[in-house]
Here is the input.
Amino acid sequence: MEQTITQKILARAANRKFVNTGENVWLNVDVLLTHDVCGPPTFDIFNQEFGEGARVWDPEKVVVLPDHYIFTANEHAHRNIDLLRKFAKEQNLPHYYDVGTDRYRGVCHVALAEEGFNLPGTVLFGTDSHTCTSGAFGMFGSGIGNTDAAFILGTGKLWEKVPESMLFTFDGEMPEYLSAKDLILQILGDIGTDGATYRAMEFNGEAIHSLPMEERMTLTNMAIEGGGMNGIIAVDEITEAFVKSKTSKPYEIFTSDPGAAYFSKTRYNASEMEPVVAKPHSPDNRATVQSMKGTKITKSYIGSCTGGKLADFKLAAKILSGQRVSVPTNIVPATVKVARDLETELYNGKSLKSIFEDAGCSIALPSCAACLGGPTDTVGRSVDRDVVVSTTNRNFPGRMGSKQAEVYLASPLTAAASAITGKLTDPRNYL
Here is the structure.
């Protein structure tokens, strides 16, 4: 029987040769991820349901990466970190990356890749909807609730329904004015925020496999914005080179069979596409940047798991080099490693960090920062009547702070070009 890549990975995790879409199976989980927002309630449920003195099923497979509310004076945010520390110490968890230490890494979805936890063919669940980011590595990554996560903590297993798959093929070459963010916003505009509900979103084609790993992560990251259970891209030599640079752990590569059944198949020609934005207040409210040109903004925000990777900042630097921003512009590295790389990565002989500083941008410490709004002292948080162009993944009312603000989702190229003019601006004007 022919299967998609998602079916094959779940079959492996279920110790089966084949699984049908719609079938419920017990999965053996390879990695469980949690962070400072969802970790404390997950640990509470674990302690309550498994009892005093219960131990997690496998400390080596639990990864705790605080990242959301880090650089803040908020006492409740600090309390969450205290609870993470307590549980990690009690359970002797080796993969707890504590705040305020050399082990702190930053945004969990990017740090997972940097630390070698993203292995082809494996199953990763996380208490964060954007856990689907890891599917860029030819693996199954999906977000779950705290109760499911607590169950995994105690058993290492989860009961799941095998999803149907939707195939999105991007033919042709990627123009220099496009990024993966444009591709996923195009899809979301076509299928809506519920078009992939409980389905796998599989991406392939010449344009996809020309992308570096960090750009592929942007695509799979926003599968959840279409309602997807997971996003996934088959492994190629680019994937393997990245994985082998981070870990020596063994892995298994799966690919979709030529005759595998899909819920739908959609083709695009990347060379014919234009830069796009998602207008307030939904990621599927798509428009071309050109059609929105001249829309005034008050802030530009380049960061998050979606737009705070080194590849994102390399794109932004192409636009901002030799320019000055006209509105407050926040550069928020996803991780400590990305922050360091800004100092060493060069464009036209200058470091990315110096390009951003010379352009008048503010460079923040690595974390999720304003992507989820956060406490009032969070860097980049929106206020009433703000109009923000952002590389983040959601623009629902209040997502980045004030419910009276508007957020336009865009690529790093568009966010940078718009920062210069103070208006939504097509990046082709600066390339």
